[in-house]
Amino acid sequence: METKYTYEQKGELIEDINKLKGYEGYVQFSHRPLDKKDIFDDKDKAPNVAKDEKGFIYEAHFCNAQESIMIRQQNAEWVVSKTPITSDESNVEIKFEYFAFEKTSLLKDIKANWVKMAQIWQSEPDDLCNGMNVKKLKKVVFAGFADEGGSND
User: For the chain, which residues make up each domain, given as ranges?
Assistant: First the structure.
């Protein structure tokens, strides 16, 4: 599901981000490097993005156990895409991968050591395989932070 916000709706976008209690994620601004105040790794607290930030949100990613939210600035608007990271469908498989989180001096206070990504695979008929079902990668999305890396299978 996609939603769009115009530049005039910047305040509304920030309000919606700040309501994401139960999510973890980060916001990358256009005018400065990522800072510890831009990473939200405590699911018990809602994000607190300042409305008076000088630059604009270049990208942001948030997730909880059910969905991943991607926010990207694109052509004078923000595109918000929500992707489920769980599925009961038999033709959908979700695999998780873990990547080491480089802790710079600015990010030394972050609790997590790993970034978790979800790969969403879907089985579908493929003409190149005589119509047999083949798993195809549909999307890779942010799935949170982790203290320890899991297996990358």
Answer: 2-84, 92-146
